[in-house]
Structure formats: structure tokens, C-alpha cells
């Protein structure tokens, strides 16, 4: 039960922060939803740092990892919004923004996870 509560609390904080970032950075007129992009890339970096710390000499406990990685990062990042925003870009015929947003999200997201884990090792 304690573990579920930790994930719930972390997820709540992550979701609220993602909402605020999206509210201030997403602009339908600009094409690319920068708020969602920023949340997903920052969340990828954070999960790399968190899981890197967790793996490094057991720096984080299992409960801390659940709170931060599963809870916070899980609530902060969003694949469903990313998928919906890509649907909107395709439906509107904005293929350039679709391609940039999709490719950049995957490539930079993966690199952010690896970079976060690299930072912990250094």
C-alpha cells in the first residue's frame, strides 16, 4: 500500500508540473507543442539521472525510485499527449512540424536518458 501511495504522490506532482509547462509553452499557432516536448525531454533526462543513481551503489532506495521514476517521471512525461498532438499535426496537414516533432522527440529523448545515466557515472 505504501508503494502505491508513493507512486500516486509522485505522479500527482509530475502531472501538475507537466500541465503548467504545457499551459505556458504550448501554442497552437506555432505548430510544434513545445511544452509537451520540453516535459518529455526533461523527464527523459530525469529518469536517466534517477535510474542511474538507483543503479549506482544503491544510492536511492526502492521507495525513492518508485516515487521519483515511476511516480513523478511517469506523471510528468506523456506518450498519449504526444500521440494525440501528432494526430492533430497530421490532420491539419502540417507534415513538416509532425516530422520534426516526432523525430526530435525520439532522438533527443533517447539521448537525454543516456546523458542522464552518463552524468551519474562521471
From TrEMBL:
Keywords for this protein: Cell inner membrane, Cell membrane, Ion channel, Ion transport, Membrane, Metal-binding, Sodium, Transmembrane, Transmembrane helix, Transport
Activity regulation comment: Na(+) is not transported, but it plays an essential structural role and its presence is essential for fluoride channel function.
Biological process annotations from GO: cellular detoxification of fluoride
Membrane-protein topology: Multi-pass membrane protein
Catalytically driven reaction(s): fluoride(in) = fluoride(out)
Primary location: membrane
Membrane-spanning parts: 34-54, 66-84, 96-120
Any one cellular-component term (Gene Ontology): plasma membrane
Localization, UniProt: Cell membrane
Residues engaged in binding Na(+): 74, 77
Keyword Transport recorded: yes
Xref: InterPro entries: FluC (IPR003691)
Top-level taxon of the source organism: Bacteria
An annotated Gene Ontology molecular function: metal ion binding
Family, per entry: Belongs to the fluoride channel Fluc/FEX (TC 1.A.43) family.
Matching PANTHER family: FLUORIDE EXPORT PROTEIN 1-RELATED
UniProt function note: Fluoride-specific ion channel. Important for reducing fluoride concentration in the cell, thus reducing its toxicity.
The protein's name in its UniProt record: Fluoride-specific ion channel FluC
Organism: Ichthyenterobacterium magnum
Lineage per the UniProt record: Bacteria, Pseudomonadati, Bacteroidota, Flavobacteriia, Flavobacteriales
